């Protein structure tokens, strides 16, 4: 993947700098020695802060390593230094999208296609973001443009695949089927497209064709739980219980908490004469449903207790409110809003280290939230000396 990033940047004409240091970093990255490349670029940028090529390469390498904050910072600097570069805008958008921040990714992708309408990768990226946002006509427009740009090449397979998803969402199964057929013809090793093609053929009542496509998908990627489930479920519908058990068991081992897989597996085992094993899976299914029900109940209780905390805080009982927020967070640790309430209450009580820790965790869970970013920055600025933790995700 590192080599792919460097190759793409080179083809985009962004790594043209004659600097020996940037050239060295480029070669190191191409060899897979990203840590050494990052070290070279760090040192170089300290002496040459306005070198956009160095920041672009560094930001892309850091994104690949999962270091969100620093990669975004470097790529933003690269965009500021080279605002008319569609490739730099696209790299920034890809970094945001890599870290699950589709909302922030959209603007750089839009700038990239506005600056360079013939930039196929940016058209695909924008189409994907719009598809995820369920803006189907707009997504279709950019994906069609990408398909036109790439022509009859392997690069066109992915936009064809995404275009099929648009058609599926629009309940146009025949056109979705056509797009997927084109995707796998252009890229015969495209496992996800084969899996979706099986689904499209099933919708067209082509059961043998569906099984053939699903089989190709699992041959290409045996670790794809969805493809294994789809193949197993299709075998089950076709009355081929032993084959169904084989693939549903693989899907189960890959994703043991998928309700559909458990349900189909227990049915397949029963049809295959394995009643004891079927009962065991049925028990696991019951436990899973009970667990999901408990999670749902906890989520509802957490909201209720959080609201009680907000009422106490409004009435001036800050300590009581903090305790309510803590209990609510224990019930639903995934709720970012409750965690922010708890963090702010702790900060108001003067518990700076724990408050900052909770606020930082909220930002880690919702990295694109500008309000949390601003609140954390403001709180760190006001915190007494020695009370600000050293975050594990910060590069020194």
Sequence stretches where pLDDT stays below 50 over 5 or more residues: 1-7, 10-17
Into which percentage range does the β-strand content fall? under 5%
Helix content range: over 70%
Q: Which CATH top level class of the domain at 285-382 fits?
A: Mainly Alpha
- Give the count of helical stretches: 21
Biggest sheet statistics: none
Number of strands: 0
Q: Any guess at the CATH architecture of the domain at 285-382?
A: Alpha Horseshoe
Structural shape: globular
The rounded Rg comes to: 25 Å
CATH superfamily of the domain at 285-382: Tetratricopeptide repeat domain
Average pLDDT taken over every residue = 91
CATH fold field value of the domain at 285-382: Serine Threonine Protein Phosphatase 5, Tetratricopeptide repeat
Q: Decide which structural class fits the backbone.
A: mainly alpha
**Cα-to-Cα separation, first versus last residue:** 25 Å
Order of helices and strands: HHHHHHHHHHHHHHHHHHHHH
Short description:
The protein has 396 residues and is an all-alpha fold.
Task: Please tell me about this protein's structure.
The model is unreliable at 1-7 and 10-17 (pLDDT under 50). Helix 10 (157-169) runs antiparallel to helix 11 (173-186) and helix 12 (191-203) runs antiparallel to helix 13 (207-220). 77% of the residues lie in helices and 0% in strands. The chain is mainly alpha-helical and 396 residues long. The protein is globular. It has a domain at 285-382: Tetratricopeptide repeat domain (Serine Threonine Protein Phosphatase 5, Tetratricopeptide repeat, Alpha Horseshoe). It has 21 helices and no strands. The protein has helices at residues 2-11, 20-30, 34-47, 52-64, 68-81, 86-98, 102-115, 120-132, 136-150, 157-169, 173-186, 191-203, 207-220, 225-237, 241-254, 259-271, 275-314, 318-331, 336-348, 352-365, 370-382.
